[in-house]
Specification:
The complex is a heterodimer of chains A (269) and B (299). Chain A is mainly beta. Chain A contains four helices and 17 strands. The termini of chain A are far apart. Chain B is of the alpha+beta class and 299 residues long. Chain B folds into two domains: 150 residues, Alpha-Beta Plaits (2-Layer Sandwich); 139 residues, Alpha-Beta Plaits, CATH 3.30.70. Chain B is 24% helix and 35% strand. Chain B is built from seven helices and 17 strands. In chain B, helix 1 crosses helix 3 and helix 5 packs antiparallel against helix 6. The longest helix of chain B has 16 residues. The chains are: A mainly beta (269), B alpha+beta (299). At the A-B interface, helix 3 of A face strand 8 and strand 10 of B.
Chain lengths: 269, 299
Amino acid sequence: MTTLTLRSEPEAPLEAGAIVPDRFDGLGRNAIARLEVSCGNAAARLGDFFDVRPDGRAGITLEGDLGRVKNIAAGMTRGKVTIRGDAGMHLGAGMRGGEIDVHGSAGDWAGAEMAGGTIHIRGNAGHALGGAYRGSRHGMNRGLILVEGDAGNETGAFMRRGLIAVAGGAGDFTGAFAVAGTILVFGSLGARTGAGLLRGTVVAMRPLELLPTFRYACRYRPAFLGLVLAEIQAHGMAVAQEYARGAYLRYNGDLNRLGKGEILVYDQR
Amino acid sequence: MTDAVNGVEIEDTYAEAFRMWGARVVITAASRPWAREAAAKMTGFATSVIQCRCEGALERSLRRTPDGRPGVSVLLFAFSRDALAAELADRIGQCVLTCPTTACYNGLDAGERVRVGGQLRFFGDGHQASKLIAGRRYWRIPVMEGEFLVEDAFGVQPAVAGGNLLILGEDPERALRAAELAAGAMRRVPSVILPFPGGIVRSGSKVGSRYKFMKASTNDAFCPTLRGVVDSSLPEGVHCVYEIVVDGLDAPAVEEAMRRGIRAACIPGIRRISAGNYGGSLGKFRFHLREILGKGASG
């Protein structure tokens, strides 16, 4: 495992797309330290900011306050990245495989347009979690994102496939314009949840204010949620059994679009 | 080699089994009785591939299921991959989809897969939806009760069918008791089923018949009422024979089931344990009774 310890917070955001297991393969300490990054608009080397300590084992561990370090593990395809602290924007964006474990919070666009792999954020996540970059048709397309805290606005917006679970609350426009995929939010949800939803699923464990373009369908126990909750638990997020056994109110929408999406609201009765 | 167990003769012969394709279906429901009900319906008319197109039975109740609800597993066997795919779709579609509260999952990690939910989804008439969860695709089909969840593809693999035991008893009561004990012991082996009623067959068959339209006919050599009329295989004092047929996902499972079955069947009132074979003309698998008893721990 290679341990990267941030010596001090960079003066400008550090673009650190080089911190990805795929790039570290076969590199020694010096080669890793020479990997290119940019601080603001200035070219720099990874070693200018981090102490690099490889021990021969696979994987990367980052230490320090990395809230201004962007693009960590972006595009990764394999391996594991552990972050002991906060992570900056675009964490794991476009990743296709592997695992990211953040023992802190992550900035905006974490897991944006990811196509596989797992991101586990023990703290909070910023806006556009698993989302799509402006101009893109689709956000997250396969993979799993777990957030133990809260998530910001546009969580899972434009999502195409995959699973996002947020133990806390999520902001406005959660699941907006999602084509498919599943988003579970155990805390409160902001405004306009599921706006423009095409086929995906938003599961709300607390009552929420719905758009008028979602129509109540029924109260039932969807069997697939048992699989989803089991998947979340298998990746280390605790889920109360009542959610697996309970009933849900189903609302179909967004009727402004195809209307094949759904918002399932846990019914505490 | 073991030629007797508890004083019961183990005939120096073998059971002849043949290649089939097998699948494991996991059925869950709101309660175990409903899961068992679906399994029972799904494995109806599935005793012998000779006339039923497939063989199937409940394998076991499950402690852990994909969706956390009560569940059971069912094994289904057919002569070919395609035949098995057709039976899976037909039987799940008619017997599990229709059963209250059920969901249906693949229970076999096999290299080959056949689409089941991928066919049944069309029942949703365009309102079906899929979910990709942990790399596996599921179909949610709206039904009047709510929705039916079924996995898109099921694993299928080459399997072994037609393993068998013949229990030769002095009277019907003790022969049946021995068969019941054997069936109970055999069912505890994972990856096997006993497709006949209660796991026991009273009408064992031989290949062919004097009638050209019959593929199989009564095993006259083991019919006590025909002693003296045909070339009987029954020793003196035997008045009843029961057969147990066992299908398994692989040969070791069938062998283990037969070993346990033989030991359980060797009770007072049983004269001989034999097996059905057709001179090696039917199948590639031969389970020699004395050899398989010798392989296991003494019992």
